[in-house]
Amino acid sequence: MLEILSVLGYDYKTAETGYDVILLLKNNRFDLILLDLELSELNGFETIEHIRRNLKYPENTVPVIAMTNKDFSSDFSQTYKDEGFDGIIIKPFSLDDLDKTIKEVLHQSSNSKVFSE
After folding, report:
1. Distance (Å, whole) CA 94 – CA 92
2. Tens digits of per-residue pLDDT, 44-96?
3. Residue 29 confidence (pLDDT) above 60
4. Which one of 25, 71, 73, 111 is most buried, by most CB atoms within 10 A?
5. Which ranges in the chain belong to alpha helices (H)?
């Protein structure tokens, strides 16, 4: 994943656990979060719930893309939208698929709310 993000030209920080994601978000400004649903300690659903409910603006408004190996028949399940995710990418994914998803979510976010890194 780190190699893919580097090839695509994105700057990034990594986290091992859901708690690490929350700590990074409290201490840094991000344009986007790629959140694996299988994180340890707090899974992706628990992590996004904490982000959306317990953090203050602007940390709680950062767009989040769920990364999962579960396949869906539709492009983006209503369940994930209801949980607070802004996009979803199914593993395994191609470099182009990831880049397209990131750009779509960032574009949607820039049209719907104002925040900066």
Report:
1. 7
2. 999 999 999 999 988 899 999 999 887 655 555 778 888 999 999 988 889 99
3. yes
4. 25
5. 2-8, 18-27, 44-54, 78-83, 95-112
User: Alpha-carbon distance 115 to 109, whole Å?
Assistant: 9
Pull the structure tokens for residue 61.
């408004």
Number of compact structural domains in the chain: 1
CATH code of the domain containing 69: 3.40.50.2300
Residue 45 lies in a domain: yes
Query: 37, 40, 33: which is closest to 10 by C-alpha?
Result: 33
C-alpha 110/C-alpha 96 separation (Å) is: 21
Higher-confidence residue: 63 or 117?
63
**Among residues 25, 20, 28, which one has the least CA distance to residue 54?**
25
Q: Is this model's pTM higher than 0.90 or not?
A: no
Average confidence (pLDDT) over 30-50: 93
Domain range for 41: 2-112
